[in-house]
Amino acid sequence: MIFEEIHIKNLFSYREAVFDLDGASSDRNIALISGRNGYGKTSLINCIKLLFVGANEDMRASVLSGRSLTRKQYILGTHNDEWLGIMNRRARRAGEKDCEIRITWRDGSNDSLIDARRAWRIDSTGFEETLAISGTGSSVLQDDAAREYLEGLLPQDYLPFFFFDGEQIQCLAEANREKLLAQIERLLNISPIDTLREDLNRLANEWRKKAMVEGEKSCLTELEGDQNTLSAQLGALEEKRTDTRSDIDRLKREVQEEEHRLDSHRVASQDHDKKALTGKRDHLAKELEETQDRIADSLPSTVPLLANPRLVKSAVAELRKLVENDATQQASALQDVLSDLQTDLFDKPPHSSPRLTESQIRFYKHRLESLLRAHIPRPEDMSEGLLRMELSRARALLSVLDHFAQADRERRTQAQTLQRITRLKRDFAEVALSLDDVSHLPEEEHEEFFRRKAANDERKRRIGALEQEIKHSEESRTEINKQLREKDKAIRDQEKQVRLSAAARAKVERAEQMHGFFRAYKDTLKRHKREAIERAINTHFQALVTGHALIQHIHVAEDFGIHFEDSEGRARGQPVGGDETTHGHRPAVGAQGGLRQGGPPGYRYAAGPHRPRPSGKPAVALLPQGGPAGHRATHRLGTGRPKARTARPPRVPGISSE
């Protein structure tokens, strides 16, 4: 499949564009699509993906953070303008209703030309979508037949690895490992084994249920019902959390937009004063935040003691009575004697001969403790004051309260800090009021300003309330997940108690044997696949990347992660070469050198560091290409019809954004 022409009409950022990719020759077989931010590179990738898979789940989930759009929302747009749909905005304003993506490619097997076109007719209430493919050797394929043809040509599971936005590589690298592993297993045709194992588990559970006595079956059914209820509650909670987060994002955008409108109403003739007031407001806000943070670290735990000096001094006086009482001192001394005497008499050498047994030691210790405790008065009988407690606790409490009874300086310092916070808040409110001075405006605009300001303040209050809802929902989510784990354990325990008939037991045992067989088969299959991938990577790596002499062997781990080994046999999984293998321009330059000298058949290299990038990384794309290496042509986006450095750019079967 070698692309020859891409035609886009009224899709995303494209009004109409034609990419002529025909004309590859022995010295011209690499194309580079380049452009500044916002000039349509990502739109080009999305258009190509739309042709092959339409508005599938992956594309709908990539638009808004935290939730997936419906197919209708993706194509038409959302009611709150969070997503404007696939139709080009200028075309929509001009009243046009049609948009399409058409790609012409050459079939590598028989050199025939294939023309595929997916089009939409969009109005305010809905859309009509058509898909047609011609040049397949038969009549024109329409809709379902065309979709089946494209799925056979390039399955949806493979699409992300052929057409992707290079700027999203970091997101791919940080993707959830379980999801990524599941995707890899699906690509390697391993996942059907998991389906077999799940079916075997389901059958075994059904056979167990049929063999249960009524009481056990009823109990299990009740547990499963509780589990389903909790799962439904969790699903509803997740949906509500998603909606709440969406509402928060929408309100924050509205607050920001409304603040800009309010700024336009403020005094335009006092720009200098406004600038000074804005600076003062920001300074006060920063100072207020720092002061509040400082006092929040110490005041909450000590404020009851600092705010009640008379009560603290009274407590200190009562504690001194307790600590200095003669009976208390005697009781403390007897307690110390009892504690030390048991250890010194029975546990420390020299010991009696013959040695006492353990039971004798316990008997005499208990006897000694009973005799001495008879002479230790109870705490409530030892003091004439208000407090009754053990001497050790009284001493510890006295040491704490005595400090606060004499902490007049600290008390004054904290009081001054609180007064300063009050002054800062008052000054901040006065500056904010001055910034909102719109007294020069006509009465109608004056009222409109404060109406808008009140509405925006209400939005801010609503954001705070919604964020609290998110916090509470997180707590509920944690609790429901805990209950689900408990129910799952209870269900497993109940299933173990099932009394099976001989026939049912035989079927269940056979199912468990098959389940174990398929698990072992999957492990063996994964090992063979990993070994094949590892051999292929090591076969081509040295030719592809000549700039990394430190890496002598690449190991594919259990989870298909890549680990390196150097010439000294460094342990698998440890990085080799540090920054040279992970960051900056050096790996790209090394790769470029290796690929220019030669690589695996059918692959050529394209790089485009034509402008500084925020990440500091060059634009890189590895494109499967049918012709020989050597030529580099460029399409630049954002200046109307793409232009090439040469008369006819080369054929390109896949396009990668910068």
Automatic annotation (TrEMBL):
GO terms (BP aspect): double-strand break repair
GO molecular function: ATP hydrolysis activity
Lineage: Bacteria, Pseudomonadati, Pseudomonadota, Gammaproteobacteria, Candidatus Kentrum
Rad50/SbcC-type AAA domain location: 5-254
Chain segments annotated as transmembrane: none
Coiled-coil residue windows: 456-497
Cross-referenced Pfam families: AAA_23
Native organism: Candidatus Kentrum sp. LFY
Claim: DNA-binding is one of the keywords in the record: no
Record-linked InterPro entries: P-loop_NTPase, Rad50/SbcC_AAA
Biased composition regions of type Gly residues, renumbered to the chain: 591-601
Keywords: Coiled coil
Superkingdom of origin organism: Bacteria
Protein name per its UniProtKB record: DNA sulfur modification protein DndD
Location of the region described as Disordered in the Swiss-Prot/TrEMBL record: 254-278, 568-658
